[in-house]
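BUG-349 | component: ligand-complex export | severity: low

The export step for EPU jobs runs without errors, but we want the raw record kept on the ticket for reference. Input record follows.
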Amino acid sequence: MPTSAAGPTVERNVSLRAYNTFGLPATARALARIAADADVRRLLADPELGREPKLVLGGGSNVVLTRDVQQVVLKVEVRGRRVVERRDDAVIVEAGGGENWHDFVAWTLDQGLPGLENLALIPGTVGAAPVQNIGAYGVELAERFEALDAVDLVTGRSVTLDAAACRFGYRDSVFKHGGFGGLAGKSLITRVRLRLPQPWRPVLGYLDLERRVHETGIAAPDARTIFDWVCEIRRAKLPDPAEIGNAGSFFKNPVVSAEQCRDIIGRDPHVVHYVLPDGRCKLAAGWLIDACGWKGKSVGRAGVYERQALVLVNRGGASGAEVVTLARAIQESVYGRFGIRLEPEPVVI
Ligand code: EPU
């Protein structure tokens, strides 16, 4: 039984090494497994832990742990997947926050429900997906989002948030912001509902997928084929966290003004960039880091992945501090050469 009438199971002095995809060492003073909304309410009512600061942990694929965690760690283990509603214009599907994201994507395809195939193989859980508005190969979670259920970590109240309330941006949402109006550390996502538009239309605009269409001669791939292509592309250039600790892209792709972009292109004509609708440019951070000579380099036991400079890896036994030191050195050299400040994607704790 995941829960009891007395409340969720609370474990003491728990190693978090297996709970973060970087494989960094850190210990949680207390860890509570949350399998249902009611578990949060029972924990809040606990005389000892109820009022302590809390840290919500999903699949641990977007954190860099640099120290032991004094907050009470809430490990989201809400399960379940279901088709909620079939409408003419869309099918609504739902999954528990603790479900593995990739398994959920595969499940939707098994149900004959395409729409998430471009987001295959992204590490992490369903509950973490809206936090950083995961995106890949031309599709962002926000474009498929219907609503989510969350529990307020102060009042214990269950609430439902629509897309507007989530304030999605590029790898950003209300759940990443503290302060007034932000929800960072203030709520725990229990269920996410996604809208799969009908009729289904493939998204093939991303360069790597266009290349596949060309190479295979399959001009109108079905969703399963796109799923397989995305898995192959990712496996070829991104390390599998089960083998090499990492948190996916370590930096966001920076957005610069049209003027700054022209300036950089003037100096480095090969810089990979995408013009945005408002005239600004998004630059490929991986290219900038690569251009500074970082690919394959290491600082201590933290390194830059050989096949994709945007991904920092644990070469074995690295500490969070080593990862942060490497990240700072990269930021400094990119700033020195291009005048651009790279912003980390994962949350540093
Ligand atoms: N590039 C280099 N050298 C490198 C890495 C990249 O020259 O070492 C160049 C590539 O040749 C390419 C460009 O930079 O022309 C962009 O690289 P890529 O297509 O691999 O995509 P990305 O911008 O590095 C983003 C997301 C990924 C997502 C892919 C596919 C961010 C921060 N990253 O990566 O997301 O899977 O696009 O859509 O937006 C993640 O967030 O964890 C993640 C993996």
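Assignee comment: Attached the raw record above. The CA atoms of residues 132 and 171 lie 4 Å apart.
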